[in-house]
Amino acid sequence: MRASGENKALIVERIIAIRYLVNVIQTVIGKGAGDRVRKDN
After folding, report:
1. From what superkingdom does this record's organism come (predicted)?
2. pTM score over 0.70
3. Cα dist. 13→9, 33, 34 in Å?
């Protein structure tokens, strides 16, 4: 299969998207319970 490179790119994009979503969710939760979630930056 020559599509392995494209598959890898799709997987990387998916990981980035998931991490972005997790970050957004943590930010939203952090606004509600700021004392529970620590901000690293």
Report:
1. Bacteria
2. no
3. 6, 30, 29
